[in-house]
């Protein structure tokens, strides 16, 4: 699957279901998106066009509000700072841990969340594991990584989802992990 590796682009693939969610779209996200499925017998391709209307095209009754929005969105104000360079020179560390999910009934949604530092490290990779093996991202398994916040939602839990879930954060200097148990019951 070729897509931009970014927390705003969330691909999903499970059985015969494929999707790409774009969170917080921007004008530069406009274009044609193509999904290509390939196997030894051939391929299937589908495309969709996305048009994004920029905020500046929106009308507001309060000109001061629009000026404040433009000020916040002005990327030229954000210069790379020395403290930022220093901050990303540390190995990942979870500053809050996952919590066990032991009282869920089958069919409910399990929600794991934690916080990891450094939050500004563009090389930080977050991976979710179940019983030591990578999980398959799909419509039931929905990971999120946004500015130090990591989460995993498991929609419509079933008995096979029971186990130990681990979130691993890795950069060029090392890694850290946090784990929790998911235990569901039929009652």
Any descriptors?
mainly beta; 187 residues; four-stranded antiparallel sheet; disordered N terminus; 13 strands; Titin; Immunoglobulin-like
Could you please describe the fold and organization of this structure?
InterPro entries: Ig-like_dom, Ig-like_dom_sf, Ig-like_fold, Ig_I-set. This is Titin. Residues 92-183 form the Ig-like domain. It comes from Amphibalanus amphitrite. This protein has 2 domains: 1-56, no CATH class; 85-185, Immunoglobulins (Immunoglobulin-like), CATH 2.60.40. It has 2 helices and 13 strands. The longest helix has 11 residues, at 63-73. It is mainly beta. Helix content is 9%, strand content 47%. The strands form 4 sheets. Strands 6-13-12-8-9 form a 5-stranded mixed sheet, with no helix packed on it. It has a 4-stranded antiparallel sheet with strand order 5-7-11-10, with no helix packed on it. A two-stranded antiparallel ribbon has the order 1-2.
Strand order of the largest sheet: 6-13-12-8-9
Tally of strands: 13
What number of domains? Answer: 2
Task: Find the CATH topology of the largest domain.
Answer: Immunoglobulin-like
Task: Give the H and E element order.
Answer: EEEEHHEEEEEEEEE
Global shape: globular
Structural class, from secondary structure content? mainly beta
Beta percentage is over 45%
Strand count, sense and barrel status of the largest sheet are: 5 strands, mixed
Tell me the name of the CATH class of the largest domain: Mainly Beta
What's the alpha carbon Rg, rounded to whole Å? 20 Å
Number of helices: 2
Corresponding CATH architecture of the largest domain: Sandwich
Task: Name the average pLDDT.
Answer: 81
Beginning-to-end CA distance, first to last residue: 39 Å
InterPro entries: Ig-like_dom, Ig-like_dom_sf, Ig-like_fold, Ig_I-set
Domain Ig-like: 92-183
Protein name: Titin
